[in-house]
Amino acid sequence: MTEPSIYLDSNATSQIHPRVVEAMMPYLTDQWHNPSSGYRAGQKVKASVERAREQVADLIGAHPNEIVFTGCGTESNNMVIKSLARVIGRKKSRVVVSEIEHSAVLRPTEAMAAVGFDVERVGVDSDCRLRLDHFADAVVDDRPGFASIMWANNETGVVQPVAEAVEITKAAGWHFHTDAIQAVGKVPVRVDEVPVDFLSISGHKFHAPKGVGALFIRKESPFEPMIRGGGQESGHRSGTENVPYIIGLGEAAAIMKSEMENGGLDCVAALRDRLQTGLSQRLDRVRCNTQPGSAPPCYTAPNVAHLSFEGCVAAEMLPKLDAAGIQCSAGSACMTGKAGPSHVQKAMGFSDERAYSSLRLSLSIFTTEEEIDRAVDIIAEVARECCVEAVE
């Protein structure tokens, strides 16, 4: 009997938690009413939506009124960036992002640059951490602007110095947005401790379904809606609410808050370390591309191992790994099939050879020790096979 595949690509998308499915089901069957309706059935649904808003707010230390439900993390990012573009205007303004941002931040800011905005990208060091000195030089107090720095990188899992970046930005009188899509539900993200103005969330990265996200908008922060209509979400994002998915997002937020408080993510980190250690012991050509450990000041999300396999090409390893029962990736899912080395790894100073030999192995609360041990055996075997083929 063939053993089931081992899923090590949770940064691409995560398995929907059974409790999330259970929470959603009533809103796909009996409780299907429009939450904007005035009768009791609709108001009951509206109360459930507001409960989900409280759950998401509780996960990040926000007030429920500061949470806006969206269709995905990409929408959340675009909503903020396009809003701020209108707020600050293109005359004499500046926008600062990092070189390692997700395309959902890089592409909108590239569009801004094409119509006259001064957009500057700040580099990172070899550990994939934002160069704060360069960031401070880019953020100027004599011009209006905003900065967008991700909380955790989607490829390497490296957590960025967001608190320090916010401090620099605020000193200049700028607005600050963070793409926290790969951080929320995995590392502590608290807007009551780190005063970001805007923060993007995507549900399918932490066991909610695809097709739902959220945006934190700090009270009194300027915001121009991208979608106008019936005035739902306090006018920030019109359109009838996707109730079942919003309920699922709320339940997933509650689950991940409990997991972090009760050591669930510590267990994931231990499995990640077991994976890295096991491969390092089995192969003399494997290299961890980030600093080890899950503690500040330099640390990674507990579920991500980013490794290079010297002498191998990741694009050749992936189909062999898939055939052998390992599902993983060479970088972010949205870049699969695109030519060229990862922009993240190039920003870190990697050679093309090292970038092309890298795998991202991302775990979740559903990953087991038995799966990790079996994955070590399979990945080591495939890496040896690919290295031999490369020599030949």
Indicate the topology.
Blueprint: E1 6-7, H1 18-24, H2 40-60, E2 67-70, H3 73-88, E3 94-98, H4 103-114, E4 118-122, H5 132-138, E5 145-148, H6 162-171, E6 175-179, E7 198-202, E8 213-217, H7 243-261, H8 264-282, E9 286-288, E10 304-309, H9 314-324, E11 326-327, H10 343-347, H11 352-356, E12 358-362, H12 369-391
Parallel strand pairs: 1-11, 3-4, 3-5, 5-6, 6-7
Antiparallel strand pairs: 2-8, 7-8, 9-10, 10-12
Helix pairs in contact: 1-7, 2-7, 3-4, 8-12, 9-12
Fold and architecture overview:
- With 392 residues, this protein is of the alpha/beta class.
- The protein has two domains: 6-15 and 262-391, Alpha-Beta Complex (Aspartate Aminotransferase, domain 1), CATH 3.90.1150.10; 18-258, Type I PLP-dependent aspartate aminotransferase-like (Major domain) (Aspartate Aminotransferase, domain 2).
- 40% of the residues lie in helices and 13% in strands.
- It is built from twelve helices and twelve strands.
- The protein has a seven-stranded mixed β-sheet with strand order 2-8-7-6-5-3-4, sandwiched between helices.
- The protein is globular and about 65 Å long.
- The mean pLDDT is 94.
